[in-house]
Amino acid sequence: METRTILITGANGEIGHGLVSYFADHNRVRVVAMDLNTMDDNTRKKCFKVYAGDILDTRFLDSISTAHDFDVIYHLAALLSTRAERQPTIAHKVNVDGTLNLLEMAITQSRLQGKDVKFIYPSSIAVYGLPDIETKHRAGRLNEEEWTEPRTMYGINKLYSERLGRYYMSFYRQLDANPMGGKIDFRCVRFPGLISAFTLPTGGTSDFAPEMLHYAAKSERYNCFVREDTRIPFMAMPDGVNALLKLEAAERSSLSSQVYNVGSFSPTAHELKARVKKAFPSAEIEFKPDLKRQVILDTWPEDVDDSRARKDWGWEPEYDFEMAFDDYLVPAVREFYGSK
Ligand code: NAD
Ligand code: SER
User: pLDDT tens digits for 87-118?
Assistant: First the structure.
C-alpha cells in the first residue's frame, strides 16, 4: 500500500485536532496541516509538514500545492455561525472564496497527478432554516432536501459551498472542448453541533452544550444563552471525526449523493443541564437566553434524518446521549481539568 498525502486546512481547530491525532496513529499517511494560527506544538509533532497562512492567499496555497501531491483534502477552515453573523463579509470571503480557492487547488492537483483528488467537506445543520418554532416542532427530523432555506450568513455559505463542490465534481467548465468533470471526488457531511472533551469551540451557536460541560468541569458558573426547551442535534467529537473518515473511505460506487446528514443524539438544553449536573452535582448553570442567538437556534432542526448515510456508507454513531457522557465526555473532561 502506498503512503497517502493528506492536506488538512483549519487543522488547529476542534475537528482538526481530532483528525490529526487519528492520522498520527496510522502508518502510510503524511499529514500536511495548515491554519491561520500557528499550530500548537503537540499537533505540530504529529504532522509531516505544518504551514501557517490564510486560505484567501492564493500565492500561499500555490506554494503548498507545488510542494506536495495530495490524495485527499480535508477542508475544515471556516468562520462559525455566530462569528459569521457578526462579520458577514469576512465570513463570506473565508467560507465561500476560501472554499473556492481550495477547490481550484484540488482541480490543479488532479490535473497534474492525472487522477481524482478526494475533497472532504464538513457542512452543517446551519444550512436549514425553519421559519418559526411551531414549524420546527412539526417538521421533526429533516432529510437533506427539506427546509434548506438558511437565515444566517454561515448557513448560506455552507449550502452554497456544498453546491460549489457538486459543480466542481460534475460540471466544472462544462463548455470546454474537453470538460474536466469528475476530477474532484467531492464528499460532504452535514454535522450537528460537535462536543469535544479536549477543546472548547469559539464563535459557534451550538457552543452552549460544550460550554456547559467544560464550565462545570472547571467549577465555573455558566450562564446558558438559550432557552431550556431548545433542541438541536449534537454529536461526540470522536463520532464526528469518524464520520469524515468513514465517508472518505467509502467506495465511490456506493455513494448516491455528495451530501449526507449524520445524526447522533438530540437533547433539549434542559436535558443537557440535567446530564451535566449528574456528573458535576455542584455545577451552577442558569438559563439567560440571548434572544438574538436563540432566533438562529429556532431555525435549526430538532433532529436530522441520516438514513442516506446509513444506507450508502454504513454510518452509525458509536455514542448515544448516555454513552457520550458516560464513556467519553465526563471521564475525559475530568482528566483534562483534573476535576472530581
Ligand atoms: P474551529 O473554529 O475550531 O476551527 C476552524 C479553524 O479554521 C481554526 O483553527 C481557524 O484558525 C481556521 N481558519 C479560520 N479562517 C482561516 C483562514 N482564512 N485561513 C486558514 N485557516 C483559517 O472549527 P471546527 O469546529 O474545527 O470546525 C471545522 C469545520 O467543521 C468548519 O468548516 C465548520 O464549519 C464545520 N462544522 C463544525 C461544527 C462544530 O460543531 N464544531 C459543526 C458543523 C460544521
Ligand atoms: N456548530 C456550528 C455552529 O454553531 C454549526 O456548524 O456554528
Answer: 999 999 999 999 999 999 999 999 889 999 99
Per-residue confidence band for 218, with pLDDT thresholds at 50, 70 and 90: very high
Smallest CA separation from ligand 2 atom 3, residue? 204
Torsion of CA 184, 3, 120, 209, to 10 degrees: 180
Pocket test for ligand 2, best of 95, 200, 205, 208 (most atoms within 8 A of CB): 205
Contacts of residue 139, Cβ cutoff 8 Å, sequence gap at least 6: 130, 146, 147, 301, 302
Strands of 47-91 (E only): list them.
Answer: 49-52, 72-75
> Domain-by-domain residue ranges, the chain?
78-196+234-264+302-319
Nearest CA, atom 10, ligand 1? 10
- 339 pLDDT tier (thresholds 50, 70, 90): confident
User: What is the 179 CA–ligand 2 centroid distance (Å)?
Assistant: 36
Mean pLDDT of the chain: 96
Of the options 3.30.420.40, 3.40.50.2000, 3.50.30.30, 3.40.50.720, the CATH number for the domain spanning 78-196+234-264+302-319:
3.40.50.720
Cα–Cα distance, 193 to 213 (Å, whole number): 14
> pLDDT-based confidence at 182, cuts 50/70/90?
low
